[in-house]
């Protein structure tokens, strides 16, 4: 229902931070009037948004839209509906830094339509410390199934601010040291992406509620504008996502803080994720763990078989003893199963997730760990060969349960160039794969 208290429909709105004159815009403020967004169409009927924190511009005119196989929804659009709502609840976390989390926002849904083409809804949620938006594809004629070819979600940061980020599409994936660079020196970077703004504020760009859709990478467009770069499906298929309507994309988020710590104590992204669907989760017990993997990194042990094989019964018992004595809940053991011998990083071997190496007595170790008040943590390295893993998933998880392993770490190591199945780690295929693991677990 429209609420005139915090919704104003404006015609020919002029914004002090923009050189363009907009034709039709909608303004929404956050519950405590800390943050404001303007959403509308420019003279070419291109959807855009602007964001302000305490009247300080955070994001200047930034264009939005998607390109589908069924039509280009980045220009030539008209606003056909505007709806607003508000929400305020406090919910209890089963664990975490804070027990009680307040979820308080105002929401704006703007419906866009293109003559002769499909419709598109843009949904904005405003918290006092941030703004989030997503695309919603309603069920309509001609949009039963469709392909996302590209997403145009811009973040015009106004100035060449200093930023903190790691590079995207690199061979080491997320395993880089964060570097401080101005926006103009960036190329492709991962989120979460942090801005140390020259106006004294701190921004954080990320996403939430990622389901059945590729991860968002940020690509520099000019000296102060970034745009979404969705991870392609595979090396041979540049499409971003194959979908069926109705569908809603992940949230694109911009958090704002007056000091760096505000970005940590802001629970906007947590609130944007879907609520718990498991019901009673009192059986989930967080805990600290340790493991044998560090031996491999400093060359005291090996993952593969041989005289220095670290995942052997005697060595793992030593770690169990230490864990039991010093209050660790679990011991993670890597290199315990068949598949580590050979060129596993390039998909050269097939891991077996229910067959331990001869020097690893799983029955004795699971008994010994339970005796010491500790549990083993399973490790499933796949070498990015997801098909091999999925074929074994049911017996692999039954194996974990049989031997009291209450947690599992999965791995997808490859060298960045040789993808065993051709799929990119953060494309739609892999996101769906990860979701299936959570649900099976």
Total number of helices: 7
Helix content: 10-25%
Shape descriptor: globular
Instruction: Briefly note the structural class of the backbone.
Output: mainly beta
Q: Count every beta strand, where a strand is a DSSP E run of 2 or more residues.
A: 27
Terminal-residue CA separation? 40 Å
Low-pLDDT segments = 1-22
**Radius of gyration, rounded?**
25 Å
How many strands, what sense, and barrel or not for the largest sheet?
A: 10 strands, antiparallel
Write down the overall mean pLDDT. 91
Percent range for β-strand residues: 35-45%
Key phrases:
441 residues, mainly beta, five-stranded antiparallel β-sheet, globular, disordered N terminus
Could you explain the architecture of this structure?
The protein is mainly beta and 441 residues long. Helices cover 14% and strands 36% of the residues. The chain has seven helices and 27 strands. It has helices spanning 268-272, 293-297, 313-326, 362-371, 386-391, 393-402, 428-440, and strands at 7-11, 24-29, 35-41, 47-53, 56-63, 66-68, 71-73, 77-92, 100-114, 119-127, 130-137, 145-151, 154-156, 162-165, 179-182, 188-189, 193-196, 202-208, 216-220, 225-230, 241-244, 247-248, 251-257, 289-291, 330-332, 375-381, 408-411. Strands 8, 9, 10, 11, 14, 15, 17, 18, 22 and 23 form a ten-stranded antiparallel beta sheet that branches. Strands 1-2-3-4-5 form a five-stranded antiparallel beta sheet, with no helix packed on it. α3 packs parallel to α4 (362-371). Residues 1-22 have low confidence and may be disordered.
In summary, what is this structure?
The protein has 441 residues and is mainly β.
């Amino acid at each position: 229902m429209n609420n005139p208290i915090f919704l104003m429909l404006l015609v020919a709105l002029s914004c002090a931070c923009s050189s363009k004159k907009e034709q039709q815009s909608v303004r929404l403020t956050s519950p405590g009037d800390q943050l404001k967004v303007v959403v509308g169409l420019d003279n070419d009927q291109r959807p855009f948004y602007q964001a302000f924190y305490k009247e300080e511009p955070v994001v200047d005119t930034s264009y939005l839209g998607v390109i589908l196989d069924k039509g280009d929804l980045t220009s030539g659009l008209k606003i056909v509906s505007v709806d607003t709502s508000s929400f305020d609840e406090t919910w209890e976390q089963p664990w975490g830094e804070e027990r009680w989390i307040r979820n308080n926002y105002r929401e704006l849904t703007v419906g866009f339509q293109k003559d002769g083409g499909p419709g598109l809804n843009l949904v904005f949620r405003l918290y006092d410390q941030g703004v989030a938006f997503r695309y919603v594809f309603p069920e309509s004629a001609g949009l039963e199934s469709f392909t996302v070819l590209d997403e145009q979600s811009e973040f015009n940061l106004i100035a060449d601010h200093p930023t903190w980020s790691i590079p995207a599409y690199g061979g080491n994936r997320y395993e880089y040291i964060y570097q401080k660079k101005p926006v103009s020196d960036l190329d492709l970077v991962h989120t979460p992406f942090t801005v140390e703004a020259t106006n004294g504020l701190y921004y954080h760009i990320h996403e939430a509620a990622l389901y059945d859709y590729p991860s968002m990478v940020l690509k520099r467009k000019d000296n102060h504008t970034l745009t979404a770069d969705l991870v392609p499906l595979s090396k041979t298929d540049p499409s971003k996502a194959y979908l069926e309507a109705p569908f809603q994309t992940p949230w694109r988020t911009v958090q704002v803080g007056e000091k760096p710590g505000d970005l940590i104590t802001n629970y906007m992204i947590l609130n944007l994720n879907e609520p718990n669907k498991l019901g009673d989760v009192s059986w989930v017990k967080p805990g600290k763990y340790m493991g044998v993997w560090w031996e491999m990194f400093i060359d005291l042990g090996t993952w593969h078989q041989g005289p220095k094989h670290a995942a052997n019964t005697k060595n793992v018992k030593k770690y169990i003893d230490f864990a039991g004595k010093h209050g660790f809940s679990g011991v993670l053991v890597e290199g315990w199963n068949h598949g580590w011998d050979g060129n596993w990083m390039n998909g050269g071997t097939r891991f077996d997730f229910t067959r331990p190496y001869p020097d690893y007595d799983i029955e004795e170790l699971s008994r010994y760990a339970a005796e010491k008040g500790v549990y083993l943590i399973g490790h499933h390295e796949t070498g990015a060969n997801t098909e091999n893993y999925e074929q074994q998933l049911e017996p692999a998880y039954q194996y974990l349960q049989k031997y009291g392993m209450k947690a599992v770490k999965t791995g997808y190591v490859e060298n960045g160039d040789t993808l065993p199945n051709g799929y990119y780690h953060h494309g739609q295929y892999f996101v769906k794969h990860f979701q299936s693991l959570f649900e099976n677990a």
